[in-house]
Structure formats: structure tokens, C-alpha cells
Amino acid sequence: MFLFTLDSRSLGKCSDCFVCFLSTFVPILLMHSELRITSDGSHTLYVPALDETYHSHHGAIQESEFIFIERALRSCTKKHVSVLEVGFGTGLNAFLTLVEGAKQDKLILYEALELYPISVEQSRTLNYPSLIAPLLEKEFELLHSCDWNTKVELTPNFSITKYLADFTSFVDWVRYDVIYFDAFSPEKQPEMWSEEHFRQLYDHCHNGAVMSTYCSKGIVRRAMQSAGFDVERLEGPPGKREMLRARK
Ligand SMILES: C[S@@+](CC[C@H](N)C(=O)[O-])C[C@H]1O[C@@H](n2cnc3c(N)ncnc32)[C@H](O)[C@@H]1O
């Protein structure tokens, strides 16, 4: 997947260089995505160049709610919760977290990394607000339209900083209570799932922090364990046998 290693910060450096041309247009082509409907009626995005969807076809909302909200966020008993999401994508996990924070009266400090953001126009085609919380449609739009690299308070319970950044070279870590590890699969993006990167996450977790992911592969579990995490293989959401939850 050498294409993913192209550095978006070099975009548009010069107009006549072939490398700059490639680094501008290849990621755009690569991340072109199409709207798909999943089994629970919620949307996901399909990336033809990767032959990969952003969520399980068994149900995008069902999967996110189960893996990230139920198995990670709800296992954190703190009132102030610092959440990191690797791969902001459609904003579904962030939106479910905003809704959960309001229900449980938690104060959520959310940070999300994304290298290939979808457009605000594309986010408007997603049916998440109407299926999850119609009264919060404006907040879902704001999740996408708010500035990058700036902390924004979207509701009294939920602040977000979205970093337009490459996870594999990110440096502005804080400390986290909960991590949603939601990268594309290790087959498609092996560089995201390395022991080295899990160790970096481990070093930036509070003691007791929890990280969950939809992936249950042995190679990922061992990389997390070598990085220092205690890792459980848990029953997955409907349609998926297993998932992983790691704890510091
Ligand atoms: C499985 S999708 C994430 C789904 C997302 N959590 C959601 O709720 O829609 C993986 C995401 O990782 C992003 N991504 C890919 N490479 C990345 C990188 N090196 N750094 C940060 N994000 C990356 C993709 O653009 C995509 O949005």
C-alpha cells in the first residue's frame, strides 16, 4: 500500500513536478468513496480502490454502537473521558459518543485523526442523524464542518479536536481513557497496525484505559500484547464472531 504513504502535507508544492502531481491526485482517487446501505438500514462508505467499506455490511450503526460505545466507552467509569479515534471517517463513532455523553452526563474530550476526510457535502448524504438522534442533526453537520486542528465545543458535554494528520507520524498526543482503533483492515493498511504504533498509544494511555477494535486477527492481538496491553478476544457484534479489547 505504498500509495498511503504519500504525504498530504506536500500537496500542491509545485505545479510542474510529476511527484507533486501524483501526491495531489492519487490520494483523491484512492479515497473516492460511494454510499452503501448496510443490514440495519444505516449507511456506510465503500472505497472501490481498496475494495473496503468503512463499516460492517451487517450494520454500521449496530457495529459502532457495539464495539466502540458498549465495549469501550461504557467500560470507562470516569466523569471526564478523553477519547481518541484513529480514523474519523464518517463521524459515526464521534456522533454516537456525543449522544452517549449527553445521556450519561459525561464530559467528553474527543480527539480524532483523519488523513483523507470526506467532504461536508458527502457527510450530508449519511442517514446517521435521522436514525440515531434527529434533534442533533446540526451537531452531526458541525462534526464535519468544524475547523481542523482546533478544539471546538459542540455541546456542553462534548468537545472535539479533529486532526488532519497521518496517524503513523502523529506527535501531538495527549493522554487517553478510551481509544477507538478504527483503521482500514490490516490487509489493506498494515502500517497502521504495527507494534510500534500500538506502543505509542500505550504510552499515551492513562492506567486502566481501554482500546477496542473490530479486528480480531492474531497478528494484531500479538502486536497489542507486545506493546504492553492486556488483550481480550470478545464476542463481536451480530455478523462478526470476535473483536479485540485491550487495556493498559
Ligand atoms: C474504517 S474507516 C473509519 C470509519 C470511521 N471511524 C467512521 O466512523 O466512519 C478508516 C479511516 O481511516 C482513515 N485513514 C486512512 N489512513 C489514515 C492515516 N494514515 N491516518 C489517519 N487516518 C487514516 C481513512 O480515511 C478512513 O476514514
Helix-strand blueprint:
Blueprint: H1 18-30, E1 34-37, E2 43-47, E3 52-53, H2 60-70, E4 80-86, H3 92-104, E5 107-114, H4 120-123, H5 128-132, H6 137-145, E6 151-155, E7 158-164, E8 176-181, H7 195-203, E9 205-213, H8 218-226, E10 230-235, E11 242-247
Helix pairs in contact: 2-3, 7-8
This protein binds S-adenosylmethionine.
Share of residues in strands = 25-35%
Shape: globular
Report the radius of gyration as a whole number of Å: 17 Å
- Give the end-to-end Cα distance, rounded to a whole number of Å: 30 Å
| Average residue pLDDT | 92
How many strand units?
11
Under CATH at level 1, the class stands as Alpha Beta
- The CATH architecture name reads 3-Layer(aba) Sandwich
Largest sheet, if any?
8 strands, mixed
Strand order across the largest sheet: 6-7-5-4-8-9-11-10
Description of the molecule:
The chain is an alpha/beta fold. It has a single domain (58-247), classed as Rossmann fold (3-Layer(aba) Sandwich), CATH 3.40.50.150. It has helices spanning 18-30, 60-70, 92-104, 120-123, 128-132, 137-145, 195-203, 218-226, and strands at 34-37, 43-47, 52-53, 80-86, 107-114, 151-155, 158-164, 176-181, 205-213, 230-235, 242-247. Strands 6-7-5-4-8-9-11-10 form an 8-stranded mixed sheet. A 3-stranded antiparallel sheet has the order 1-2-3, with no helix packed on it. It is globular and about 40 Å long. Mean pLDDT is 92; it is low at 1-13. Bound molecules: S-adenosylmethionine (SAM).
TL;DR?
This protein has 248 residues and is of the alpha/beta class.
